[in-house]
From TrEMBL:
Species this protein is from: Lachnoclostridium phytofermentans (strain ATCC 700394 / DSM 18823 / ISDg)
UniProt: nicotinamide binding residues: F35, I107, D108
UniProt xrefs under Pfam families: SIR2
Role this protein plays: NAD-dependent protein deacetylase which modulates the activities of several enzymes which are inactive in their acetylated form.
Sequence positions that bind NAD(+): A24, T28, F35, R36, Q105, I107, D108, H123, T193, S194, N216, I234
EC number: 2.3.1.286
GO cellular component labels: cytoplasm
Deacetylase sirtuin-type domain mapped to chain residues: 1-245
Residues that bind Zn(2+): C131, C134, C152, C155
Name of the protein in question: NAD-dependent protein deacetylase
Signal peptide positions (record): none
Catalytic activity: N(6)-acetyl-L-lysyl-[protein] + NAD(+) + H2O = 2''-O-acetyl-ADP-D-ribose + nicotinamide + L-lysyl-[protein]
Example of a GO MF term: zinc ion binding
Cofactor binding remark: Binds 1 zinc ion per subunit.
Length: 245
């Protein structure tokens, strides 16, 4: 066990209101790749090449709905993914009364599968889908069984995943709940994110507590602000914490 992990264990022991803020690096350890790390571009059925950021934008969804879903279903959905030690450790910290909320940029809902109760999904969830016309809800299983573009069985409208696309605003209610949790926290653990995606990354600036802990394999622009920085696997670090509590 590293000296940094031992420091984190002591911080967790002394804390009573921890908030965790996580990014794609939390889910990569469950086999879900960070699409921003992809090399090359995606070729659509029209023979044109687009970046993932273009494919996952609101304007692309509206103009090229078939190509959007071809990419979304093949590159963004990992139904076989299971919670990893990071997800399980955070659920355990909540069960122990140490952690009050998980704030995530991920859309896979693995935190809930692991057992976390209070989860604020900044970018929505692929498990929720709704008709753009009549608002009827559909599960992920339902839309995956449909043709490339899922169509509402009630009114024939296009079914859109309840995820925040590029060019769309985050849901203000979710943002406010996340901010409220951060303002009350005595410790904030940030893991698996390089803190470059705004406005989500700006949430760290609301923290007024004692311990800001950053756990990420690479450096972030906030490293100099942190009480503790750990450049290691988020799953291994948090698992070590749980095993010693």
């Amino acid at each position: 066990m590293t000296k940094e992990t031992e420091q984190l264990i002591e911080i967790v022991k002394e804390s009573n209101n921890i908030v965790f803020f996580g990014g794609a690096g939390v889910s990569t350890e469950s086999g879900i790749p960070d699409f921003r790390s992809e090399n090359g571009l995606y070729t659509t059925g029209q023979g044109k090449k687009y970046s993932p950021e273009q494919l996952l934008s609101h304007s692309f969804f509206m103009r090229h709905t078939h190509d959007f879903f071809a990419y979304y279903k093949s590159h963004m959905i990992y139904k076989e993914a299971k919670p990893n030690p990071a997800h399980l450790a955070l659920a355990k910290l909540e069960e122990l009364g140490k952690l009050s909320a998980v704030i995530t940029q991920n859309i896979d809902s693995l935190h809930q599968v692991a057992g976390s109760q209070t989860v604020y999904e900044l970018h929505g969830s692929s498990n929720r889908n709704y008709c753009m016309k009549c608002r009827k809800s559909f599960s992920l299983d339902q839309i995956m069984k449909m043709d490339t573009v899922p169509i509402c069985t009630n009114c024939g409208g296009v079914v859109k995943p309840d995820v925040v696309l590029y060019e769309e605003e985050l849901k203000q209610a979710t943002i406010q709940k996340a901010i409220d949790a951060i303002l009350k926290a005595d410790t904030m653990i940030v893991g698996g994110t390089s803190l470059v995606v705004w406005p989500a990354a700006s949430l760290i600036e609301y923290f007024q507590g004692k311990n800001l802990v950053l756990i990420n394999k690479s450096e972030t622009t906030y490293d100099t602000m942190a009480s503790l920085v750990i450049h290691d696997s988020i799953g291994e670090v948090l698992d070590s914490v749980i095993r010693t509590l």
